[in-house]
Each structure stands twice: as structure tokens, then as C-alpha cells.
Amino acid sequence: MTRKKAEKLPGKGLIALLAAICMAIPGFAAQVDGETSTAANTGNGFFNRKTEGWFFYKDPRELDQQAPEPEKPVPPLPPPMPQVAAPAEPKKPEPFTVPWMRQKIEILRDNAIANPTKENARAYMYMQRLLLDMGDNFAVAGMKAVENDPYLNESVRFPTATSARRSALWQVDKARDAIVKEMAKKAGLWFFFDSACIHCHAQHPVMTMLARDTGFAVRNISEDGKGLPGMTAKDFVVDNGRATFKQLALKLTPAVVMVVPPDNVMVVAHGAMAVDELKAKIVQAAIDRDLVPKELTDMAELERRGIVPAEDIAKIKNTMKDTDDPKELVKMLQQAIGNRLN
């Protein structure tokens, strides 16, 4: 009878019956209560660890052996950004000064173009008229300053009147010819050529004419072992392996080199040129090497009289102080220019 009733009990009733039987066994209820209390206190109870599922059981020794991870140091806070002061507004130029007018006329012009009314056009034209008048006043003042100051007057530095200028240029040419003849007495010219070079063919008669007019000794040097038309074997020497050509760092033929014993070697010209051009290059090379008397140099460069050279400008930078005083500035520059005029 009792068995039949048990078979008819539903699942939940069976569980309840088993629980009642277990609780009826002596000591079992107390053991269950103790384990439940211990599990609750240690946090290892099923309900506290239900998220572990089937892996709720772990060896307590493994838990003890797991060392806690060290805490990562908190990075220090970055220093505060310095506060940058707002840039000061540029100072506006005073009205009717040149900077003010330069800005104003651009504004008036743009307004007149964008909105071409009669009023806008007149405003621009009036401002332009005032600027032109100021420019004319500057030009008149500049002319007066030049006329009354020999250091600024170009006609003092080198004549501008027709007769005086013609006479000065004649003196310049005379001094240059004297330099060429002076160099012909103590120097020679090396003429490098190649028989296949068409410009060398044209330059050969020029070298012959120069030697005849000035007395320069000219040595013809062949780069390919052959002569030019009109030359015999004794009229040239061969530059074996182009050794001299390379040693002098020559670039092309024809080339002319001036040689002054014992150790002055100057490349005078590359390419074909007329006699006058070649003479001018010989003069300049001699002046650059200080190979002629100073009086001849000064006369040959008369057109450059009073021009401040680069080396003098470098001295001005190192010796003269910066100043906005026009009188002091003029005094310093007069001294620099006067050294080249006197």
C-alpha cells in the first residue's frame, strides 16, 4: 500500500520524502547545518559560487599558491601646459604717414574695383595723387642732394659730358694697352686647340694677330696631336695624354692661358673671341694678380672710381655702428666713399 502510493508521487514529492528520511537519521541534520553554515561563512557555498558551474571545486592549495598580482604604479600627471599670452595687436601706423598711406590706398583701390561708384573712385584717385606728389617731392630733394654732394654726383666720379667722357675713355684705353704691352714683356700665352674643333680654326688667326700687335709669345698646344690649317709641325707642341689640359682644369677648346714665370698661371679665356675681348681679359687677369703698377691699374679702372668694393663693405659692417641718425649715417658713408674717390 505504501509502495503504491510512493509510485504515484510526482517528482517533487519524491524529493521531499527523501529529505524527510534523511532528516530523521540522527546527526545528519546537524552535520548538514554545520556544513551549510561553514560554506556560507567561507564564501564557498554553491549559491555564492554558482557562476563556476561544473568547476566549482578547486584545490585550496592551488588558491594559496597563486600570488596576487602587484599593483601597477599610477603614472604621474603631466605638468600643466604653460599659458601662452595672446599676441599683442600690431600698432597701427599714424594717419598720413607712408605706411598708413600704403595700407589705405590698397583698401581704397579694392573698394573702387569691387564697388565702382563715383565716391569710391574719387577717394582712390585723391590718395594716389597725394602719394605721387610725395614721390615728386622726394625726387626733387634727391636731385638737390646729388648736385650739392660730390660723393653722390656721378659726373664727379666719372665725366658724363660728351667731350670730357670721350677724353676719359681715351685715357682708359691707353692704360689698358700699356698693361697689355707690359705683360707681353714678362709673360707668354698658351693656346690650347683641337684640330677637329671648328672654333679653334677661327681663334688661330686671332692669336696670330695678337702676337703681332702686342709682342706676346704664343705657344700653340695640340690636344689631338694634329695641327690647324696653316701650321707646320714646328708651329705646335703636343699635349700628351692631355696632361697639361687636365692639370689646369680646362673645360674645352679653344682655351688661352697666360703664364708669368716663375709660378703665375692664369686661365684667361675659354672659347673663340675677338682681339679686343682677349686683350680685356688679359688686362683683368693682370690687375687681379697685382702684376702691373698701381697707376696703370687706377687709370685702367677709372670707370670704377668711387665705387665701394666688397672688402670695404665688409669693413663697414665690422667697424661702423648701427644708427638711425641721418647725419651720423651720412658721415660714416662719406668716409667709406671718399677713400675710393681720393
TrEMBL record:
What Pfam families does the record tag this protein with? TraF
Matching InterPro entries, A to Z?
A: Thioredoxin-like_sf, TraF/TrbB
Q: What ranges does the record list as Pro residues composition bias? A: 73-82
Whether Signal counts among this entry's keywords is yes
Which portions of the sequence form the region Disordered?
65-95
Signal peptide feature range: 1-29
Keywords (A to Z) from UniProt: Signal
Q: Which SUPFAM superfamilies does the UniProt entry name for this protein?
A: Thioredoxin-like (SSF52833)
**What is the superkingdom listed in this entry's lineage?**
Bacteria
Q: What is this protein called?
A: Conjugal transfer protein TraF
Taxon lineage: Bacteria, Pseudomonadati, Pseudomonadota, Betaproteobacteria, Burkholderiales
